[in-house]
Specification:
With 209 residues, this protein is an alpha/beta fold. Helices cover 31% and strands 18% of the residues. Helix 3 links the parallel strand 2 and strand 3.
Length: 209
């Protein structure tokens, strides 16, 4: 028997700052950094809006990377984060751990920038493959949550959020950029074989990186 469509609220939240973020480095799946003190402090000071009562979130899912798990534990101290391997950050290959100043004279990097970040990175991922695994992980998660869950949070990475949002709302990938500790509140219609994006708005918009 096919499950009827139900409405769920989903919060997509980018992890807090790490030392690599402060230095504007490409911090992907090869760099399992902890939150830096500034990142922890900023998260602790977030003001939850009235329509986002933290106690009403039924379940919290995260990227398995430390910065995402640590963020989840700060924002949702009464919940046990459930890691989702498919929501790991992008593999930045030879760009990993470096910033623009270190890479700006690298011909491969310049071609990657000119491609809008879509070209495959040597020893890393291309954007299309990253988006495909992110969306597949997100859709599998949403379709398989228990019926008792009506509100969930997903703490992951900026690229994951841009992938999910651009897929759901048919906007350009970079339109959905968010800073550390920012994100979106989504209203979704979910049935056994269908996922409908109903609405969204920004969550925790503030000055970032």
């Amino acid at each position: 028997m096919t499950r009827e469509q139900r409405t769920i609220t989903c919060y997509l939240i980018r992890h807090g700052k790490t030392e690599g973020n402060l230095q504007k480095k490409y911090i992907g799946c090869k760099s399992d950094e902890d939150l830096c003190p500034q990142g922890e402090e900023e998260l602790a000071q977030l003001q939850f809006p009235r329509n986002f009562p933290v106690e009403a979130v039924d379940a919290v899912y995260t990227s398995p990377m430390k910065r995402a798990v640590q963020t989840a534990l700060i924002l949702f101290p009464d919940k046990t984060p459930i890691p989702q391997p498919g929501l790991t950050e992008m593999n930045f290959g030879i760009f990993e751990g470096k910033n623009y100043e270190e890479l700006k004279h690298n011909e491969v990097y310049r071609r990657w920038i000119d491609s809008g970040g879509r070209m495959a990175i040597p020893e890393g991922e291309d954007l299309s493959s990253f988006q495909t695994r992110t969306i597949a992980s997100f859709e599998h998660l949403v379709h398989h949550i228990q019926d008792s869950i009506t509100s969930l949070a997903i703490v992951c990475h900026g690229g994951n959020i841009m992938s999910i949002m651009s897929h759901l709302f048919s906007e350009e990938y970079y339109h959905f950029q968010v800073g550390n500790g920012e994100g979106y509140q989504l209203i979704l219609g979910v049935s056994e074989d269908e996922l409908t994006a109903i609405s969204y708005h920004r969550l925790f918009p503030r000055c970032s990186p």
